[in-house]
Amino acid sequence: MPEQDDVEREFDLRWADDAVHKEPSARARMLAARWKENPPEPVPFRGAPDRVASPRSSWLSTTLVLGCVAAVILLLGYTRFRERY
Hints:
85 residues; mainly alpha; 0% strand
């Protein structure tokens, strides 16, 4: 089959996009058939977490991250101080 040039391909895309009736994809048809017999249960936008983090663990992780950042800043400052003198 010869290659279509860009003008013909553009025409084909516009023709397909302007179609009045668009057939659903195979996955959409499969899910519609499955859900007709067995509809899915409603799911909230954000599901409930499996485990609720305690306030202590959130403070502990925050302290750990800030401590690591402070350690890196001090290490970089120390190495620059050593290079100058």
